[in-house]
Amino acid sequence: MLTPATIILEDVDLIGTERQHQTISANALLFELLNQMDGLADDTDLLFVLTTNRPEILEPALAARPGRIDQAIEVPPPDESCRRRLLELYGAGLKTEGVDWDRLVERTTGASGAFIRELLRKAAVFAAEDSNGDELLIEQRHFDESLAELVVAGGTLTHSLLGAHVRSSPA
């Protein structure tokens, strides 16, 4: 009745883990998802988009039948060029001085877009703390502090949430 439609299930691994590793409530949700996907008429114009950061733990039944999962697309971490563009995008409007952008791009190898956004946000916060009400000016040391906090002090949870797979030592 509401077609065409796109249904996005973000982090499907939360309900779609292999059955032997599921809780009872996740198991019920997975079975309902599978039943609904199987019960669609052939002419139904629905697109399911399932996202996960952990495809290796997904229940094989999600892809076991044709028509459930027709295509898998891996989105790798941003490459050097993309990281540079992300720094420009998220840094638009910020005033910087003495920032070695090449070094920053190199030091964020393996980082996600979310990590790069948070890196710029934290650098701006550190610069604001130093500004004493003056004009906000972000310097290299603010980025160094941000990297140290995110990579070293942030711990495993921060790494997992923000996609931090970067080196913490200076380049």
Task: Fill in the keyword field for this structure.
single chain, 171 residues, mainly alpha, Helicase, Ruva Protein, domain 3, two-stranded parallel sheet, two-stranded parallel ribbon, 4 strands, elongated, disordered C terminus
Can you describe what's shown?
The protein is mainly α. The protein folds into two domains: 5-64, no CATH class; 80-162, Helicase, Ruva Protein, domain 3, CATH 1.10.8.60. 46% of the residues lie in helices and 8% in strands. The chain has a two-stranded parallel sheet. A two-stranded parallel ribbon has the order 3-4.
| CATH-defined topology of the largest domain | Helicase, Ruva Protein, domain 3
Estimated radius of gyration: 21 Å
* First and last CA, distance: 57 Å
Question: Which CATH class of the largest domain applies here?
Answer: Mainly Alpha
Number of domains: 2
Taking pLDDT < 50 over at least 5 consecutive residues as the criterion, the unreliable ranges are: 167-171
Total count of helical runs of at least 4 residues? 7
Widest sheet: strand ordering: 1-2
Helix content range of the residues, please?
A: 40-55%
